[in-house]
Write a structure and sequence with these properties.
The chain has 302 residues and is of the alpha+beta class. It is built from seven helices and 18 strands. The strands form four sheets. Strands 1, 2, 3, 4, 5, 7, 16 and 18 form an eight-stranded mixed beta sheet that branches. The chain has a four-stranded antiparallel beta sheet with strand order 6-17-8-15. Strands 10-11-9-14 form a four-stranded antiparallel beta sheet.
């Protein structure tokens, strides 16, 4: 039985608060309804549903074609991993946006909300791109950006294990299989290292199209964190650094357009990871408990 929903505006942009009309479970939200709302809004906050880890997992699986992961986090269900990036504020980013494995959708489930602060932040890349000066848009449109970093052997093996459909134990995967996966991804180069790790570079537009359409969105990980990994080097494709005045404009515009998700127990959030960046205010209540999932969804019919 599907759960009928109603929507109201959330925040200053196109985000939506989604609530059940007459009660119902997260697990029974109609997948097409959710995808259509996400295409319109960029991010959704689902509130008032019967919710737990099982219903959240079912919602993710019903709406997605496949799931992916952050190899540095532990699983708490078939799809969910605990958010554990320390206590400091986390900069805006897209999940796995500094790698060729960026998911279409980032999902969050709040099992226990913080008593103060600790909000998840969201920033719509459509709004950012439109708010940039012509000079900033010209700079980012002129050439791609490149992320490069080292990834440990345990981390790349965990990712490859998942990408290969868990058909082979992680410890049996050869680096050649990772290289074969990377060869199918535009703009990606991976160089094996003597210690078993790899160093990769990933070239991508700073502002690109989304899973739902051709409109340009400034959705990337230029300002993002590196809690469980080596901090990446980020440059323009020709190897030059971003001018300080350009980064200053990115920081000013995104800060002005950033909104808070003020969590309540049992809330879930759905974020178009190809359009909307997210981050986090500093954690002031360490007892808050939030899980996330990453997935791919069907692109809309042409």
């Amino acid at each position: 039985m599907s759960t009928a929903v109603k929507t109201t505006a959330y925040g200053t942009g196109s985000g939506l608060l989604v609530e059940p009309v007459e009660g119902g479970s997260l697990a029974d939200v109609e997948p097409k309804v959710l995808r259509d709302l996400l295409a319109e809004a960029g991010f959704l906050l689902l509130r008032g549903f019967d919710s737990d880890m099982d219903s959240f997992t079912t919602l993710v699986q019903n709406t997605s074609t496949s799931t992916t992961l952050d190899p540095a986090r532990d699983f708490y269900s078939e799809v969910a991993q605990k958010v554990d990036a320390g206590f400091d504020e986390v900069g805006l980013h897209t999940e796995n946006g500094n790698s060729p494995f960026r998911a279409h959708v980032a999902w969050f489930f709040c099992e226990k909300a913080a008593s103060s602060g600790s909000q998840t932040t969201v920033c719509d890349g459509y709004r950012v791109w439109d708010a940039f000066s012509p000079a900033a848009r010209e700079a980012f449109a002129a050439q791609d950006i490149v992320y490069s970093r080292y990834v440990s052997e345990a981390q790349w093996r965990a990712m490859a294990h998942h990408l290969l459909g868990k058909t082979k134990p992680a410890e049996e995967i050869k680096v050649e299989e990772l290289l074969a996966l990377a060869s199918q991804l535009d703009g990606t180069e991976i160089v094996p290292q003597e210690d078993g790790g790899v160093r990769y570079s990933f070239r991508t537009p700073a502002a690109g199209t989304t899973v739902f359409g051709e409109r340009l969105s400034f959705a990337n990980s230029i300002l993002g964190p590196s809690f469980n990994y080596e901090k990446p080097t980020i440059t323009f494709a020709d190897g030059t650094a971003f001018p300080p005045e350009l980064i200053a404009e990115v920081e000013e515009v995104t800060a002005r357009l950033t909104e808070n998700l003020d969590w309540q127990d049992g809330d879930a959030a759905v974020i178009d990871n190809t359009r909307v960046m997210h981050g986090r205010r500093a954690i002031t209540d360490p007892d808050r408990t939030i899980y996330n999932a990453l997935s791919y969804i069907e692109a809309p019919a042409a």
